[in-house]
Structure prediction request, 230 residues.
Amino acid sequence: MNKFVAAAVIFIGCAGPLFAEMQRMITVTGQGSVEAAPDMASIRIGVTREAQLAGEALDATSGAVKSVIARLEGEGIVPRDMQTQGLSLQPKWSRQSSNDTSDPRIIGFVARNTLSVRVRDLEALGGILNAVVEDGANTFDGLQFSLADPDAAIVAARADAVADAISKAEQLAQAAGVSLGPIKSISESGGAPRPVMMDMAGARMASDVPVAQGEVSLTARVVVEFLIAD
Prediction:
């Protein structure tokens, strides 16, 4: 037997028990979730204006946005909770009939300015929405509720996920007739937990705009590997 064959035999002989030992594990995925009432909302509002000249459209939009920002500040929104998310200026083209063979031409311009706003007083949310519309906002891209400080809820969700994984592993070990050994590894699946909207609760009436804040759910998932004791 040459040296290469001998080394291969020794490797295979050692790899067998090692491979078997590596496979003597129970791997489970645990999930935990925590529901909480939101204490903050993010809204995207915007102003769109149209004019024959590009400068006029942009000036009209800018003026309206200044009024909206001033109104938001008057409603208690601080500058750090307001951020421009989009600014655009586009030509408006003439419409052509099916029989018109002439080239389309620019007949005006449309300017848009979108603002992202965080509202930390949910009781005032409906009134704020109504106020910014009165001051010139004419687009609304969405509303998302969240937690200003989700750390405690995230910790609780992760703890629930680990407990769920341990419970599943114990059930599998019992069903297989083996003893559950120590944890070999834990990893979080899917990244850090993020708030997800739950079903809405009863709508709150604030000014002229009804707002239902409901609950947000933070879900954590972990993958846990357990050694088999025997």
In short: The chain has four helices and ten strands. Residues 151-176 form the longest helix (26 residues). Residues 4-12, 197-207 have pLDDT under 50 and may be disordered.
